[in-house]
Amino acid sequence: MANNIQGFVMIGAQAIVFSITNLRTLKTIERGRYPVAIGDDFYAEHEILPDTVDAIVQAFDAINQIFKDYGVPTVNVFASTSWAEADNAEFVRDQLYTRTGWLIKTTSLSEEAFFRTQAIMVKFPQFKSITQKGTVLIDISSGSVELTTFSNGVFGFSRNLSLGPLRVYEIMSDVQRSVTNYVEVMRDYIDSRLLDFMRLLPQGVEYTNMILMGSNLSIFQNIIPEGKHQVETDRPGFDLLYDEVTKASDQYLADTYDLTSDQTSLVLPTVLLVYRLVETLNSQSIWISDLKAIDGIEVNAAHEGGFKKLGFDPNEEIVISANNLAERYQVDEAHMQATRTVALQLFDRLKKLHGMGKRERLLLEVAATVSDIGSYIETHKHYAHSNYIIKASEIMGLNDLEVTMVATITRFHSSITPQSDLKNFPTMSTENRLVVAKLSALLRVADSLDASRQQKIQQLRVSVKPNEVLLTARADDDIELERWTLARKGKFFSEVFGLGLELKGRNIL
């Protein structure tokens, strides 16, 4: 097992944050930040400039010395999603590896959302009590805003908007010089970008509580009392802050809230964005937390490394996110549930045959959930539509490679059989292509067993024979259509696993 004392580094748009954490207790031993305005390059130049690369190297060297002083054996380095917006991001990533030996992992939007919810669920003291009512978690980074909802203590919905204060500031900077009603124009711009989010929110839920967190909350974090990690305010108190900010000069804000010039320029778009969300959602109680994505990364590392039990299943968020996507595209829920149940049953019963683990099982569960979303566009070749919809969607907690794998599994779950040559799969490692092939084969079989869309099979027994896998079904109706479909779609299973398939069944009535 890995050492429980580990170092973490997160590259954001305005700073590089690091921590040293005991993963058994989730106690922070050391934490700090190095201001590096990488986001100025992202949004203004669309690339990371050489001087900025040098600044990152200097920060890495200083952080690495701290890690060495503490004897930290394991270092995990992440970059926020905005990093990938730079045209030369991969070149810089390689340069940094060559110069420092640290390999950077770029997080996806859905991964960052996943980390933030884990941070809140584990480290926010009032989480269980306040999320019994409708609660929206708003994470504000320089380039984007992630909105995540909870109700009855359970994760409900997540959506990312390219509406971070630095991005808004860069877009609106020309407007500021040419109009007198700058605040109104910025408010209209923000409102226009919030429309899609509001339209997709679950109906019938009032979001009376709001939790604010993120790397771009300098003005809010400076009002958190010393020694505390969060503070609560009410709607009138926030209204007063909004009035103050919209009427104050930059010098007043810098002096009053102890802000740098870079932070001061982002105060107005930050406060205006939050204010419009508070008004739109009619939130009454607002919590301001200093938790950040790096806190969630620590929680995830503790869970994945087996150091700490979290008291909840993190994968549940991923499955709920997939269910939300399926619901949005109006899949046949009964067929989806039947297919998913059988797919997971096949995975569990055939574990010695396929040799895959828990993460692959989760990918199969997600793929079975969203495999038919393409039917929303067109039933004919729906698998092709499912493929590109999934690639363009956010599934909480999956990285970009895993989203591509899920999309490919759904692409090949239909009767259009890929050749056994793995070159027919998208570009990825041979190991990942094999995983996709195996999971596609299992999903094909599961989908075949509800070919009639009537959920005829009530029980299924799976037996591995020397030359075949025998499926024995108990059904409440004739299953000849399922048998015929399996004969066609099951050929790929035989190609992948080297065993034939046979379906036997008897009527239970």
From TrEMBL:
Its EC number is 3.6.1.11. Transmembrane segments: none annotated. Keywords: Hydrolase. One of its GO terms (molecular function) is exopolyphosphatase activity. InterPro entries: ATPase_NBD (IPR043129), GppA/Ppx_hydrolase (IPR050273), Ppx_GppA_C (IPR048950), Ppx_GppA_N (IPR003695). PANTHER family: EXOPOLYPHOSPHATASE, RETROGRADE REGULATION PROTEIN 2. The keyword Hydrolase applies. It comes from Lacticaseibacillus paracasei (Lactobacillus paracasei). This is Exopolyphosphatase. It is an enzyme of class 3 (hydrolase). Belongs to the GppA/Ppx family. It comes from the Bacteria. Residues 17-291 form the Ppx/GppA phosphatase N-terminal domain. Residues 321-468 form the Ppx/GppA phosphatase C-terminal domain. Pfam families: Ppx-GppA, Ppx-GppA_III. The keyword Nuclease does not apply.
